[in-house]
Amino acid sequence: MKILAVLAFSFLKVGLFSFGGGFAMISLMQNLAVGKNHWLTNSQFSAAIALGQVTPGPISISATFIGYKVAGLLGAFISTIAVFLPSLGAMYLLEKFYLKIRGNQFTQSIMHGVLPVIVALILSVAFSLGKENILR
Amino acid sequence: MVLATAALILPSFLIIVLLSGLFLTWEGNHLVRGAMAGLTAGVVGLMLAVVWALVKKFPRRWYYYMSTSCALLASLYLKLNPIWLVLLGGGQERSRYWFKEFVLNQDLETQLTSERM
Known about the structure:
A: mainly alpha, B: mainly alpha, 2 domains, 83% helix, elongated, chromate transmembrane transporter activity (chain A), transmembrane (chain A), Chromate transport protein (chain A), transmembrane helix (chain A), CHR_Transporter (chain A)
């Protein structure tokens, strides 16, 4: 039961802070599943990402794999809901305000600041996955 | 909206549950391992492609490249949590604009339109 709560909380956090699309999420998920909790090895993680790519949906579906690995079917279900919930909420709010804040300086400046960080995060994940693949 | 999202996710959810079940039972198999190694290479290539597409969007300013390198070093060597990096990145750019607007009194509207993503 505790592991389900941990899964839900962690994936809510991942869903909440992954500005910049699915690829930004990969870095957060790696940090969570490989770095912090040792749920997956690095090669299992790259399998998760690959499987997330093969399926038709968005890439954040990799969360489902991690949840399944950790706590079975229920874990998969809970992680999926948790990872999509923040964006769903954000979409609900944005639907009302998006057109107003789209060109807004405040939003623009934050997005400009996040963009280079996203690039760095994707590079760093690509580096750690690629290193694993080459070195063995 | 909730229904639409659920409908979008459901097929992939089912497929991935099936695939992960298969993958976790056959993980030791050398065929599966070979396939995964190939897929990983593909995923890395895809990520590099995404990076390239994003870098092309950078306005040609040195601090974007600076910011990228700093964040890269911080995540590779300091193992800083990505959440903090994202918040830091947003925060530093926000404060830079704030500084320009209120301390230097520059006109930002024209600048932003030229930089808009």
